[in-house]
Every structure is written in structure tokens, then in C-alpha cells.
Amino acid sequence: MVADLLTIQLLTELFPNGISRYAIGGLFVGLGAAAIYAGTAINAGASTFLESTLSYVSDRSRFSRYVRSRDWRLVFTLGIILGAAVYAVVFQGGAWTTDVAPWRLLLGGIFVGIGTRIGKGCTSGHGVCGVGSASKTSIAGVLAFLLTAIITAQVVAALGVTP
Amino acid sequence: MSTAGGNEGRHPLFMPLILVGGLIFGFGLGYSHMARPEVVLDFLQFEDFGLLFVMFGGAAVTGLAYVVVPRLFDRAPLTGDSFGRRLKHFDRNVLVGGGIFGVGWGLSGICPGAGYASLGVGNLPILWAIGGMFIGAYAQGVWRSHTAQSDSAPASAD
After folding, report:
1. Cα distance from B12 to chain A (closest Cα, Å)?
2. Contacts of A133 in chain B (CB under 8 A)
3. CA torsion sign, A75 to B63 to B32 to B126?
4. Nearest Cα to A108, choosing from A48, A161, A68, A35?
5. Nearest CB to B86; choose among A115, A129, A150
6. How far apart are CA A110 and CA A107, in angstroms?
7. Residue B148: its pLDDT value, please?
8. Who wins on pLDDT, A10 or A77?
9. Nearest by CB to A109, which of B15, B66, B104?
10. How far away is chain B from the Cα of A130, in angstroms, using its nearest Cα?
11. DSSP string across chain B
């Protein structure tokens, strides 16, 4: 009885918003990637879209090697935007806007853009498809970005930046 | 390299499947609240560990697909490509790039897929982050074309 209460209290502390939204959302994320994989054998990831889309405006070899895949990557990204919009209309009841400061979004975005391209993947490529593949490379990548992300977020919070 | 990227002879259902897959993927990112930087920052500050269920829940489904799908089909129905797991060569860049990615993720609370989804939930300020990602990817591409002309790593379907 006491143990049960402690368990409940611990769960409430670790997951103050419950786990269903996260688990259900995660299943959908995996299902979207799995559907594409089943039909096409493509391991879908979100970050190559950055380089493949840059190939529309730059001839650099680094980007032009994605010319062949840039159209479907654009469609995949449009799908992500539309899917999230469906969620917003059905469950959220309208637009939602972040309070995180624009400088954090811009500077963080620049680091994300650099890092994901050097590190061969992001949270969807390494985190969802790579971990699902039990790829040691992806697991190492995930551990690397989790570590520096936790340190960065904790330092920024300790410096009193909110949010 | 996958032939899936080719323009000619694509299956008529190729693009529709990519769109539907993206829709499901993006809906999941919205439903899981990953499109909200605040929720990701709460995870990184140890205030809500729900993100683990998103990443590993998603990985469990793709992991199942990697096991089941190749037993159902010899080759992918829409591309004719053979099925492989997502395995990439490990080198120092995975750790260096992952580390840099993490700094950006910890600073902004947003990653590429969640960024696009964030636009979908009506979060227009996320355009700062998406713009930053393009700047970063462009800078990295320019820098890499200067430093490594011999970099001929095969294009990947990441």
C-alpha cells in the first residue's frame, strides 16, 4: 500500500503530464516512419530536408547530391506540417505560440543545422529510425546530443533565462 | 544509393505515401507536444521525462517494422529497393556533430522534425529556429566543400 503510494508519487513527479500523450504521439511518429519504410525502404529523417532544399538555391556539391530526393523530402516536410495542423485543429483548438525568446530559437537553430549535418542525423533519423535499427552509430549520436542538450538547457536555466 | 530518389518511373503512389507518412509523423509530433519547445526544455531540465516515451515509443514501432516488413516483401512495393536497417558508419563526426546538435537543441528546445510540426500547430515564431537551421546547414555545407574536396561519402536517406 505504502509502496503503491510511493510509486504513484514518483510517477507524478517524473511525468507531471502523464505518459499517454507522449506514448501515443511517439507511436504515431514511429508509424509514419514505418509506413514510408514499408512502401519505399526509405529510412525517413527530417534533417536532410535542410540540405536537399538548399540544392534548389545553391549548386554546391554538398547540397546537389540530394537533388534526386529533394522533391519527396519537400513533400514529407509538408506532410509533417499538415499533420501537426490536423492535431492543432482537432485537439488544440487553434494556434499555439511559444514563449521561448527568438534569440534562443535562432541561435539554437543554427547549432542544430550545423550539428545535424556533421553528425549524420537528428532526433528522427538517429533517435527514431537509428535506435529502431539498433544502430550503434545512432545510439552514440543520441547519447552525445542528449548529454550536451541537458548540460546546455540546465546552464541556460541556471543563468536565469526563462523561457 | 537508393533509387528511390529518381524522378523517372516512380510509382504513382510514391508521393502520396510520403505525404501520408509525413502526415502521421507530424500528427504524432503535435500530439506528443514535441512541437512545443517548452516541453522539450522541461525534459532537458528533468521536470518531465515524457519525451523518452516519444523517442523510444517511436523507435519501438520502427524497430518492429525493420523486423516484420522484410519478411512480408522481398523488395519495397513502390520503389523496388531492398530493405535495410538504418546503419551509418561511425566516426568522430557522429559525436562532434551530435554534441553541437545537442547544444542547439538544449538552447532552443527544437529539432528539425519538431520544428516543421511546430509551424503546423500555428507557432509562427518557430520560423526563427527553422531559418537558423537553414543558416547552419548552409554554413556547414560551404565549410565542408572547402575543407574536404575528397569527401565522397555516399548520399544517405536520412
Report:
1. 12
2. 62-63, 66, 85-87
3. negative
4. A161
5. A129
6. 5
7. 63
8. A77
9. B104
10. 5
11. --GGG-STT--TTHHHHHHHHHHHHHHHHHHTTTT-HHHHHHHHTTS-TTHHHHHHHHHHHHHHHHHHHHHH-SB-TTT-PBP--------HHHHHHHHHHHHHHHHHS--HHHHHHHHHTT-TTHHHHHHHHHHHHHHHHHHHHHH-TT--PPP---
With beta carbons less than 8 A apart as the criterion, state whether B136 and B110 touch: no
Of A22-26, A42-46, B103-107, where does mean pLDDT reach its minimum? A42-46
Cα–Cα distance, A149 to B103 (Å, whole number): 5
* pLDDT tens-digit readout, A113-163: 999 999 988 888 888 888 888 899 999 999 999 999 999 999 999 999 888
Q: Is the dihedral of CA A74, A75, A79, A82 positive or negative?
A: positive
CA distance B56 to chain A (A): 7
Residue B122 φ then ψ, to 5°: 95, 15
Torsion on CA atoms B52, B55, B57, B60, rounded to nearest 10: -130
Instruction: Determine the Cα–Cα distance for residues B50 and B142; give it in Å rounded to an integer.
Output: 37
Q: If you compute the radius of gyration of chain A from its CA atoms, what whole number of angstroms results?
A: 19
Number of C-beta neighbours around residue A56 at 10 A: 11
Question: B15: nearest CA in chain A?
Answer: A72
DSSP class per residue in A32-64: HHHHHHHHH-----STHHHHHHHTTT---HHHH
Residue range B139-154, pLDDT digits in tens: 999 998 887 654 444 4
Interface check for A39 against chain B (CB to CB < 8 A): the answer is yes
Least Cα distance to B26 among A137, A85, A23 occurs for: A85
Place of cell 538552447: B107
- Residue A73: enclosing H or E segment and its boundaries? helix A70-87
Q: How many CB atoms lie within 10 A of CB A7?
A: 10
CB atoms within 10 A of CB A114: 25
Question: Looking at this protein, which amino acid is placed at residue B6?
Answer: G
